[in-house]
Design a protein that fits this description.
The protein is an alpha+beta fold. The chain is about 55% helix and about 10% strand. Among the domains are: about 160 residues, Beta Polymerase, domain 2, CATH 3.30.460.10; about 60 residues, no CATH class. The chain binds adenosine-5'-triphosphate and magnesium ion. The site of adenosine-5'-triphosphate has 13 residues, from helix 8.
Length: about 450
């Protein structure tokens, strides 16, 4: 089992500008007798040889005030670096242009009651590692030390390396799930992502915690955030179905709502959506993946369970409507899209729907409809036609009639029936002429004396 990581591999995690900051911080930490460490997820991923997501740094400065990380950064970094201190947890955020880097303070956390936010104090690295969720996440590397030469020794006070080698997540003390029940949701997600199980002792502790209903006092926002990550983590190789299956088997879904399950009909669409998150079939602006994930997943649970679960997860506003409306939307759109002939007809059915609904529909559709949806999303929706609303205004069209003619022209262009602006305007004229003659026939019918009708 490896007990160190190559130094160049570690420093490759930072781009040139960031590396300069990290080196300045390391040197200043060493000069003051502190340690600056890489910690948690990135160390675990380096050991596993997996791509590293976000980089987590930790400053060990026991006995210091919670402002120390920010103070140290201000003292040694160029003025161009903006330093924001978050006193409650002792974290300092460094910003240089678009680049952001968080330096957390090694700390202890004491929980006054289950599920409550902890009180925080500066502590040693080891103490900080022991308050973490799982041993596999309780590893560190001292960036401010030269010891080890070309290799950097791993700091592993909790036996995390052995657990990584045996592919399991293990909590660090018996009350861990009581202190922070969201760790159980993390275990399901991180375990699914890494292909790790939950070790037997931790499983037993989780059963006990759930039998004491530890999730009940946890806020909906905190629980929802864990589900949000289930649907954004596919970028890091997570299959959301696996994470939800762990949650189901471990009794976590039941703890959110007694009727909540992972319906078998949701499995394939959810897996398909997971693939779409890691390898987008089209480019999406501001996609809220979790809204898509919840829409697909909850579409196949009973409506009452869906409503209660959304309330429990404190889902609010537009997201609630999107998830609640999806089952109906799905059946209407899938059947209409199945029958739609031509790109214009598809455009008419999909124009204006939210990005979340579009993805959820795509994931739920059969291959033929999926193709229609993705072609529309990737190509047709951004297609500009050479006739505009103001052209039609000039012809005297307005309101709903203008919208209908424009939609008809758009369909004509997408279907290849219209080739250029002249043909578009000619059809607009023709449609307008037909409208006027229909209108004048109707007018005549109305003004004819009653006896003639
Ligand atoms: P990812 O690759 O998803 O970022 P990560 O393990 O880095 O995985 P983060 O959510 O970034 O996860 O958290 C950073 C570190 O903080 C974790 O590795 C873990 O050590 C610790 N941590 C996070 N959440 C908790 C928690 N609820 N309880 C205890 N420790 C936690
Ligand atoms: Mg992380």
């Amino acid at each position: 089992m490896t007990r160190s990581v190559r130094r160049d591999q570690v420093f490759r995690l930072f781009d040139t500008e960031m590396l300069e900051l990290v080196e300045a911080l390391s040197a200043e930490s060493a000069a003051r007798g502190f340690r600056l460490c890489l910690v948690g997820g990135p160390v675990r991923d380096l050991v596993l040889g997996r791509p590293v997501g976000d980089v987590d740094l930790l400053l060990e400065a026991p006995g210091q005030s919670r402002e120390i990380a920010a103070e140290l950064a201000r003292s040694c970094l160029p003025e161009a670096v903006k330093v924001v201190g978050y006193g409650r947890f002792g974290t300092a955020r460094l910003e240089l242009g678009a680049m952001k880097l968080d330096v957390a303070l090694a700390r202890t956390e004491r929980y006054r009651s289950a599920g409550a936010l902890p009180t925080v104090e500066a502590a040693t690295l080891e103490e900080d590692l022991f308050r973490r969720d799982f041993s596999a996440n309780a590893l560190a590397m001292d960036l401010s030390s030269d010891a080890g030469g070309t290799r950097m020794p791993l700091i592993d006070p909790t036996g995390g390396l052995k657990d990584i080698a045996e592919r399991r997540l293990r909590i660090l003390h018996d009350q861990s799930f009581h202190d922070d029940p969201t760790r159980a949701l993390r275990a399901a997600r991180i375990g699914a992502r890494l292909g790790f199980g939950l070790d037997r002792g931790s499983r037993a502790r989780l059963r006990r915690a759930l039998s004491e209903d530890v999730l009940a006092p946890v806020s909906g926002d905190r629980i929802r955030r864990e589900f949000e990550k289930v649907f954004s983590d596919p970028t890091q190789g997570l299959d959301p179905v696996l994470a939800l299956r762990h949650m189901d088997r471990w009794g976590l879904l039941k703890a959110v709502d007694p009727g909540l399950t992972l319906p078998s009909d949701a499995v394939l669409p959810l897996r398909r959506f997971g693939k779409a998150v890691s390898d987008p079939p089209w480019s999406s602006k501001r996609l809220r993946s979790w809204v898509v994930g919840l829409s697909i997943w909850l579409a196949d649970v009973p409506a009452g369970v869906r409503q209660r679960s959304l309330r429990r997860l404190a889902v609010r506003g537009e997201a609630t409507e999107q998830v609640t409306g999806f089952p109906r939307f799905r059946s209407q759109k899938l059947s209409a899209l199945g029958k739609a002939r031509g790109r214009g007809a598809v455009d008419g059915l999909l124009a204006g729907i939210s990005e979340e609904n579009l993805h959820a529909l795509h994931a739920a559709a059969d291959p033929a409809v999926r193709k229609k949806v993705s072609r529309w999303a990737a190509e047709d929706r951004s297609e500009k036609i050479p006739v505009t609303g103001s052209d039609l205004l000039k012809l005297g069209l307005e309101g709903a009639a203008l919208g209908q003619v424009l939609a008809r022209l758009r369909a004509g262009f997408l279907d290849g029936e219209l080739m250029n602006r002249e043909e578009g305007l000619a059809l607009a004229h023709e449609l307008l002429r037909r409208r006027s003659s229909r209108a004048s026939r109707a007018q005549k019918a109305r003004t004819r004396p009653k006896a003639d009708r």
